[in-house]
Amino acid sequence: MTDEDMDAERGQTEARIREAIRRQPPMPALCGEVARRIREPNADFGELAEKMRMDPGVTMNVLKLANSTYFGGGGRVDSLRHAFVRLGARRLFQLVVAQGVASRMASRLVGYGLEPGALLRHSLCVAMTAEALTRKLRLGFEETIFTAGLLHDMGKPVMDAFVLESGPQAQTRLRNEPLSSETVEMDLFGITHAEVGSLLMTEWGFPIDLAEIVRAHHRIAATTLHELPARMVRLADGFAACSGFGGGSGEVNSELLAEDKSKLRLDPEAFDQLAEGIPEKAAELENMLTMIHRD
Ligand SMILES: [Fe+2]
Ligand SMILES: [Fe+2]
Fold it and tell me: Which ligand lies nearest to the CA atom of residue 195 in the structure?
């Protein structure tokens, strides 16, 4: 095949992937609305509760999550109002989104070699690690980083069919590609899972800064405005992979991991302390969300 033929084929695949993004089913109505308002500092609880009451399934799911070790912790949360008082509106919004996207992220991704639940577990681990570090370092983007971490690989479920179609050789290349590099996806499809995820989030109405963090989570140079949160997601991504909760890419690039730690001014001991126990909590939450999906 000549270079021109390869370029033409890549161009066609990219066009089909962009079409697949447009054909993705929309988010459930309540989830879509919450996605648009996820950064609101003073969301009106009355209005949110009214809408959630129309959807008892969502309320039940959110209460289950509110009682998990990560979100709950002290005593049982048994009503929406109680959850609001304990966790605040922003956290409630995050839980509505988490339960809304869980089913899309919990399926098996054959192309990327991920078993059922693996991408969801990975994403939760990234979300929690990034959030814990951001809080500790008081970086100022505490409200957005959990959702950015949760959705950072949202492009993968869209791309998986194309990865599968590209054949075993391409899949091996992709799985062996160092984490933090996206050259194989660019080479095969002309677009990366980070870009696809970011476009999907825009379709769903998420705030533009969240989509931008997702777009830059492997290529920090792709953003100037959101460099630190993008680094934070990349660092948490590396941590998840080192903990055995990888998201379908290859080895962690230890040079980039060290670069991210140093740019975020994070000393290695503090990192280990903060991240301790997060993979287990991510697994608990993944089980919970997968059960909710099955119920
Ligand atoms: Fe990624
Ligand atoms: Fe990832």
Answer: 1
Measured from the alpha carbon of residue 125, the closest ligand is 2
CATH number at residue 84: 1.10.3210.10
Give the distance (Å) from ligand 1 centre to CA of residue 74. 33
DSSP string, 170-188: HHHHHHHSPTT--HHHHHH
The total of structural domains in the chain comes to 1
216 C-alpha to ligand 2 centroid (Å): 12
237, 219, 228, 270: which is closest to 140 by C-alpha?
228
Kindly report, residue by residue over 230-287, the tens digit of the pLDDT.
999 999 999 999 888 888 877 788 888 889 989 988 887 888 888 888 999 999 999 9
> For the whole model, what pTM was predicted?
0.93
Token reading at 23: 């054909």
Q: 220 lies in which domain range?
A: 3-294
CA of 56 to the centre of ligand 2 (A): 32
CA 247 – ligand 2 centroid, Å: 5
Ligand found nearest the CA of 215: 1
- The tens digit of pLDDT for each residue in 12-30 reads 999 999 999 999 998 888 8
